[in-house]
Amino acid sequence: MGNQTKVTKFILLGLSSDPAMQIFLFLVLVVIYVITLVANMVIILVIRTDRHLHTPIYFFLSHLSFVTICYSSAIVLKMLVIFLDENKTISADGCLAQIFFILLPAGAEIFILSAMAYDRYAAICDPLRYMETMRKGICVLLVSGAWVIGFINTQLNTDFALRLHICGPNQISHFSCELPPLLHLSCTDTFTSQVVLLPSVVILGSSSFLFTLISYIHIIATILRICSAQGRRKAFSTCSSHLIVVGLWYLTGSFQYTKPSSVSSVALDEMFSV
């Protein structure tokens, strides 16, 4: 270990090595990123300017849009640069910075989604006390807590990534710096590294998941007690889109970070990350 040189930069192999495909992907990603950026900025602007939308659910939605802007920018902007860069390199410090700015909004998003589940629980299961339960101070506290927990988790994981001893090769089979592909380059034992990461993933993901699950168990039980079919459809429609987003988030996230190495592949990892 003493004679091994520490890596100071990485090569992001990206989604494709074909120049023509890279140009195509660059154009596609530019369009998707601009649509994402503009759409979420419009959502935030409309919610802030329209007083009729100054309700708890739209308050959470505006923060979710802000998280999406941060998360997308942290990944896509570097991807676009990599498509145009022949060397496709990123410095070790730049890689750590990208990990930090990916994990921070991702961690916050998990708990904002949980806060939205609690909001739907309060609206459907206890509608008469909804405005008292979800008063402004509580909403601000929930969002602030989401960012604080996200920051603590991000700091722990970034500090762990900083301690990794990477001595080569320096090629990351991915389109961004994330912990799972970075672990494969570590000179230390990969299994040990993954065990160190598991408590963070389990505590963050499981606590949020259980909170969301409990909320939806109560929501579904309440909906099933509604007599009319129209009433049940109306109640379920208020949380169906949120439920879809939560399902996609946990399915892809849990697979990405907890899958066994026997089913791991570059194409599969990239697909679930996308």
What is the CATH topology?
A: Rhopdopsin 7-helix transmembrane proteins
CATH C-level class: Mainly Alpha
Structural class: mainly alpha
CATH structural architecture? Up-down Bundle
- Uncertain runs: none
Number of helices: 10
Cα Rg: 21 Å
Q: Count up the domains.
A: 1
Tell me the β content: under 5%
How is the biggest beta sheet arranged?
A: 3 strands, mixed
Oligomer: single chain
Structure description:
The structure is a single chain. The chain has helices at residues 19-49, 56-84, 92-125, 130-133, 136-163, 179-183, 190-224, 229-237, 240-258, 266-273; strands at residues 9-12, 89-91, 171-172. It is mainly α and 274 residues long. It has a 3-stranded mixed sheet. 26% of the residues are buried. The model has no long low-confidence stretch (mean pLDDT 81).
Q: What are its keywords?
A:
10 helices; mainly alpha; 274 residues; Rhopdopsin 7-helix transmembrane proteins
Question: What does this entry show, briefly?
Answer:
This protein is mainly α.
Q: What are the SSEs and their pairings?
A:
Layout: E1 9-12, H1 19-49, H2 56-84, E2 89-91, H3 92-125, H4 130-133, H5 136-163, E3 171-172, H6 179-183, H7 190-224, H8 229-237, H9 240-258, H10 266-273
Helix pairs in contact: 1-2, 2-3, 3-5, 3-7, 3-9, 7-9
